[in-house]
Amino acid sequence: MALSRKEFLSLSGKSALAAQAARLGFFAFLSEPSGFSSDVLESSTVKKVHAYIDDHLDEHVGKIQEFLRQPSVSSWDLGIKECAGMLVDYFKQLRCKEANLVPTDGNPGVWAWYDGGAKKTVSRYFMYDTQPFNEKEWSSPPLAANLAPMAPFRSVIIARGAINSKGPLRAFLNALEAIIAVEGKLPVNIMFTCDGEEEQGSPHFHQVLAPYIDRLKICSAHLDPDPSQNREGQVSMWLGNKGICYVELEVSGRRWGRGPQKMPIHSSRKAILESPVWRLVQALHTMYNQSANRILIDGYYDAITPPTEEEEMLIATLIEKFKDRAFASERENVKAWMGDWSDEDAIRHLTFDTTLNIDGIWGGYTGPGVATILPEKAACKIDSRLVPNQGVKDQEALIRRHLDEHGFSDIEMRSLAGGDEWSRTSVREPAVQSVLSVYKKYGIEPAIWPRSAGSSPEAQYTRPPLNLPAVSGGLGHGSRAHAVDEYFVIEGNDKVAGLAECEKSMVDILYAYANWPE
Amino acid sequence: MALSRKEFLSLSGKSALAAQAARLGFFAFLSEPSGFSSDVLESSTVKKVHAYIDDHLDEHVGKIQEFLRQPSVSSWDLGIKECAGMLVDYFKQLRCKEANLVPTDGNPGVWAWYDGGAKKTVSRYFMYDTQPFNEKEWSSPPLAANLAPMAPFRSVIIARGAINSKGPLRAFLNALEAIIAVEGKLPVNIMFTCDGEEEQGSPHFHQVLAPYIDRLKICSAHLDPDPSQNREGQVSMWLGNKGICYVELEVSGRRWGRGPQKMPIHSSRKAILESPVWRLVQALHTMYNQSANRILIDGYYDAITPPTEEEEMLIATLIEKFKDRAFASERENVKAWMGDWSDEDAIRHLTFDTTLNIDGIWGGYTGPGVATILPEKAACKIDSRLVPNQGVKDQEALIRRHLDEHGFSDIEMRSLAGGDEWSRTSVREPAVQSVLSVYKKYGIEPAIWPRSAGSSPEAQYTRPPLNLPAVSGGLGHGSRAHAVDEYFVIEGNDKVAGLAECEKSMVDILYAYANWPE
Predict the structure, then answer these.
(1) Nearest CA to CA, how far is B329 from chain A (Å)?
(2) Touching check for B366 and chain A: CB below 8 Å?
(3) Residue B286 in contact with partner chain A when CB distance is under 8 A
């Protein structure tokens, strides 16, 4: 059922529940059992673990540095095997019952099972690979993992992978080791599944999960404690993500049977030859209305379901409490939203709309100055973000059918990337409630989005056959993922938690979830 | 007046004159004065000069090698000044009355005036710069100018500039020196204007002409003897060329005030932001009909005049005599003409149609694999070939007006290249007749096109204020201009003339023109 833009917007404010939630703020979504907070999050166990973390902070920093100094750049095939092996060793040191590499058609994954005989078992995802880097541009070598001041923080670790995400991975293991040191065992059992190609779009991650799918079914949640504060100390939660379909379209004279066949030809020949570049323009033009905000591919909206009541409540609250901060980091690069929408409307569209985006387009001569050629081919990369219940393969098939029906059957369409599906978890899930209770303990009201506008492999846990609720959260901050001088804050300030508080919040989340009533 | 495609095609065969010409072949266009050939082209003077060339061939080859060994790569600024100076020296050795560099805002031009007191003065264009090269790919170093066999030729010179066009330049000077050695002076006076930036699109050549425009007005023709045979020994003549308008169009979020403003943004933002790439697609789409063979820019065809009767006669003859050979060199790269036209129709369209071609298009991520961005800008290069009476600036203004009237006033349009205008010379001009008479002497029937589908600066001579008839032609062969192993044939075979015959045909053309009745 296609939901028209008008219908979308008219939903806003319709629901009495949504209006009520908006007034109360996000803690209205938390149904903390009576006495829960003081019983568990203020328990002597948790306090002892926190104290242990404080006492062993230098050692914890050292372990993070050790892991960051082991390169694991998947696109350069640099240090991948060594890093995977190091991760297996970490799991063994944690006294995991199982810890081994998982061969795939690409880089190895890692599987580990920590079984402390707890009642609940959670699933945990790690990625151990990183983006590449240009060392010359960095203020501190990206593999040195040096500690340095970086205003407004007195101490951060600067390294490739510092925040995305080898630093937080090792911080989580530090937190687990602290619990085991104090208590002898963890409050939950954990099944770890780890990806060595996340930065390549996780093309083989399903091969990591496949051998363990049946065993993963005993998990009750997919829990990814992670430093989630921005520079101002604010926190956002996304209860899922959109799917993504990513294709490359190529028009070639050879496949078309028209225009230049094998190589570019002198541009004067446009008088007597068709042009693959013009054909690409014509084909793309059929896909969108003039404002490029209404996709014209037949059936493209059909699978979309309207927002749920919970999503409406979350959005209403988000708009009421966070409207002014929702797009703070994007202001510099944005002057006006599409259709001159208000921030409120933009929040809704960002959450609920499917998209069709040209990530890149190219053909012919693209250098400086003049070359007079009629190119023999032209291509573009297109991604489409998918919302419930659009499926990657279904939407790809609609694009293919559209091209065929509009006379463009010669256009080659190549699927790129793994094609992550959309993912959704209810705010009412105990795992989410546990994270909310931790935020409440620290006095941080999170901005909760029904889903991220981006994509991730999370659906491999949240959709059949596993159907796990998934949530991420925690204190701490780092930034510049994929960029120069990537960092992870070690010593916090009055707004942002440092490493000790980051690890403590991870401990809190595990104890909160372990003790949350089913 | 816009001439519709249907009107164009219906002209074919309409004219009795055209049909008659077609039967007779191109020598029907030659009105040789009675006894002219035996009187002049077989005169003892010409024969003595030919013999001199045969006797001094090794010396002539050496002079060509000397000139080719002096690099003059304009895009690398390599050897430009030295080569220009060498050219001035050559003119001084020829006992030119004037020979000097002409400063421009770019590379210097060269002016020279040979005044032998002859009745007629001709204008001659030289370019002394060359394309760059990648020496590793060559079978013989591109600056060594070695002699080598290259099947089916027993001896060629391999060098950058061998055929385009320092080899032919020096061959012409060799021919002039031979005449002077035998006769003491040339049969015509010559004004030389030389370009050091032809490979850059001659951006400053008007500054070379400007100081000499008034003096050039005493010329009666612009005569460029040049080796014109293909590998099969066949010859084509183009009695002019199309003009060219070359622009770059750029859509940017910044100028548009919409979409990403300063840098690419995460592609998930397509849900709430407009896209400059889609805007470029939309803008381009307004310029052409679906088949990209009818330009939709208002008024774009208005200035076009129908083919003249002479052009119709030439085309009819071309189709009758050369239809099968007209596109021989393009067969490998072409499967079907636009609209499935016949070769006859393609010849007409190639000659008479204006065009709109995308030479290149680019935006966003164009590398391998996946990047999920919404680009902040996108651009393309467009060239349009112009026929009488389209003017470069007029057509550019129509494109600009089209964009503005279709709501794309934010799209930046940058003019690239000098913008050569169309050029046209009548086959009846004595200069053209002279060249035809030389071809007849050697038994070669040329394929005469009313104009080339490409462009050149020739209009700077043929249109006001100079209004000179322009023609090029001569025996000899070379190829691979701009490519690896560029060559110029020194020792010909049964189809193609070698250097001696090339220089002799240049001598013939000068004597034929000098003696042609006004």
Answers:
(1) 11
(2) yes
(3) no
CATH class for the domain made up of B5-14+241-416: alpha beta
The CATH number given to B52-143+164-240+423-480+498-515 is: 3.40.630.10
**B contacts of A378 (beta carbons < 8 Å):** 358, 361
Q: Domain A5-22+242-416 maps to which CATH number in 3.30.70.360, 3.40.50.80, 3.30.40.10, 1.50.10.20?
A: 3.30.70.360
Task: Give the separation between CA A271 and CA A54, rounded to whole angstroms.
Answer: 76
Q: Does A182 touch chain B (CB under 8 A)?
A: no
Query: By the CB < 8 Å criterion, does A291 face chain B?
Result: yes
Q: What is the DSSP string of A465-506?
A: TT---EEEE-S--EE-TTSTT-EEEEE--SSS--HHHHHHHH
The secondary structure of A187-243, three-state, reads: CCEEEEEEECCHHHCCCCHHHHHHHHHHHHCCCCEEEEECCCECCCCCEEEECEECE
Domain A35-240+423-515 CATH superfamily = Zn peptidases (3.40.630.10)
pLDDT in tens, chain B (518 residues): 344 445 544 545 456 777 777 888 888 899 888 877 778 999 999 999 999 999 999 999 999 999 999 999 998 999 999 999 999 999 999 999 999 999 999 999 999 999 999 999 999 999 999 999 999 999 999 999 999 999 999 999 999 999 999 999 999 999 999 999 999 999 999 999 999 998 888 889 999 999 999 999 999 999 999 999 999 999 999 999 999 999 999 999 999 999 999 999 999 999 999 999 999 999 999 999 887 789 999 999 999 999 999 999 999 999 999 988 889 888 889 999 999 999 999 999 999 999 999 999 999 999 888 888 999 999 999 999 999 999 999 999 999 999 999 999 999 999 986 679 999 999 999 999 999 999 999 999 999 999 999 999 999 999 999 999 999 999 999 999 988 999 999 999 999 999 999 999 999 999 999 999 87
Cβ–Cβ contact B230 with A under 8 A: no
Residue limits of CATH 3.40.630.10 in chain B: 52-143+164-240+423-480+498-515
**Global pTM?**
0.90
Q: Which chain A residues are within 8 Å of B354, Cβ to Cβ? A: 271
Residue A190's nearest CA partner among A108, A115, A302, A93 is A115
> Which residues of chain A does B294 touch, with a Cβ-Cβ cutoff of 8 Å?
none
| Every domain range in chain B assigned CATH 3.30.70.360 | 5-14+241-416
Q: How far is A497 from chain B (nearest CA, A)?
A: 27
